Amino acid sequence: MNTSLARSQLDRLLGKVLHRGTWLGSSIIALGLVLPMIWPGISSTMIFTRIATAGIALLIALPILRVILMLIVFVRERELRFSVIALLVLAIILAGSVLGIASAKSTAERGPSETRM
Amino acid sequence: MHVGSVAWLLLVSIGAGALGGALGMASGIFLVPLLTLFGRVDIHAAVAASIVSVIACSCGSAAPFLRSGLTNIRVAIVLEVATTLGALTGVLLAGTLSTQFLFGLFAAVLLVSASQMMTRRREISGEPDVFNPRDWATVLRLHSSYPDHALGRDVFYRVRRVPLGLVLMYGAGLISALLGIGSGVLKIPAMDTALRLPIKVSTATSNFMIGVTAAASGVAYFARGAIDPAVAGPVALGSVLGALLGARLLMAISGEKLRLFFVVVLVAVAVQMLLSALGIHLLGHLA
Fold first, then answer.
1. Fewer CB within a 10 Å sphere, N or C end of chain B?
2. Long-range residue pairs from B33-39, CB within 8 A, at least 24 positions apart, any chain
3. What is the pLDDT of residue B29?
4. Chain A residue closest to B88 (CA)?
5. How is residue B121 annotated by DSSP?
6. Looking at beta carbons, which residues of chain A come within 8 Å of B217?
7. pLDDT at B198
8. Contact across the interface for B1 and A55, Cβ inside 8 Å
9. In DSSP terms, which residues pair with B156 in a beta bridge?
């Protein structure tokens, strides 16, 4: 198999992306926490909420990015089966987000009393 | 946002992350009980916040496993079809299940985790079963090898019973989404017993998969607006810091007594969760 070298390169790439992404996401959240404390006068809750949400979104996106990277490599190596499998995983995650948006809408329509949290 | 509550969330999640890191578990298993029992956070909110920290811990710890060639990413992506489907089912079910049921389920998962911790994971030196060139693992070329530093050479391994592994992984994804945990409880038997992966490969691969599994439900909860940044932000940050600390602790403290201590903690938390499921609060009003 010629995959051994390619494999270890892909492993390293994925590791690097996940590692740096985690630090970036965590740092953004930390910034959201610290900024309102050292910068009084701005609407701290709003700033905090926005920055922290960005950090959280980045953290959630990391594993998805990792699947996309794997998909790209599988397609390049013409691994048809694995390309389809990676696409399937992405499709399921996408279905989850559509589902989430749909349920958010239906909750909004039913009125705020039923809103969770 | 109160500085007090942020500090409390940070501290609690550093603690949960450190415990998890020291045990090689995700922080969620300690985080959700702490948030619900002491912080009086609604269990659905606690689960959504915990999912983010589960993702962060998985991604943050993936690199060393990947670098040392232990993670089997082909096995991971195949099983992720099942875990993400399970997660999707969990998100659909989550809204319909009562708080009591979730507390009860959580207690059950804690008890199973405790019993798993008591029985050491052992390599199952399986009978060399009949080689079937048409089984899933062979067709998908999942068999692989990993570098064993003690032996100083690459160890080849075969992957068995992929369909059974997929079924167990569907369950793991479901539990993960419902309870906001990495759900090693089902992943470990799936990897060790069904697929017969070597323990090191199984640990690395399951850790790698936890991120995608949790991201599937995380995206859905995020889109639904169920993730409160005021809770999830400090919790994710604290868990990442705690996990770093825990990994250091793991090297400093020896194994057996630590395991026993955690078994006691797990059982105690399980009992408290069960009592909460029944509406009895012994500790719930402390916070």
1. C
2. B33/B106, B33/B110, B33/B269, B33/B272, B33/B273, B35/B231, B35/B235, B36/B103, B36/B276, B37/B269, B37/B272, B37/B273, B37/B276, B37/B283, B37/B284, B38/B12, B38/B283, B38/B284, B38/B286, B38/B287, B39/B8, B39/B9, B39/B12, B39/B287
3. 82
4. A96
5. P
6. 96
7. 83
8. no
9. B145
Residues of chain B with pLDDT under 50: 1, 284-287
Output Rg (C-alpha) for chain A, integer angstroms.
20
ipTM over 0.90: no
Name which of A18, A67, A104 is nearest B59 (Cβ-Cβ).
Answer: A18
**B233·A22 Cβ contact <8 A:** no
Check residue B66 and give its pLDDT.
87
CB < 8 Å to A8, chain B: 69
Nearest CB among B85, B220, B233 relative to A99 is that of B220
Q: pLDDT digit string (tens) for A32-91?
A: 888 777 766 666 667 778 888 999 999 999 999 999 999 999 999 888 999 999 999 999
Give pTM, 2 decimals: 0.86
Instruction: Inform me whether the pLDDT recorded for A5 exceeds 60.
Output: no
Cα→Cα distances B156→A7, B8, B70, B150, B173, Å: 15, 47, 12, 15, 28
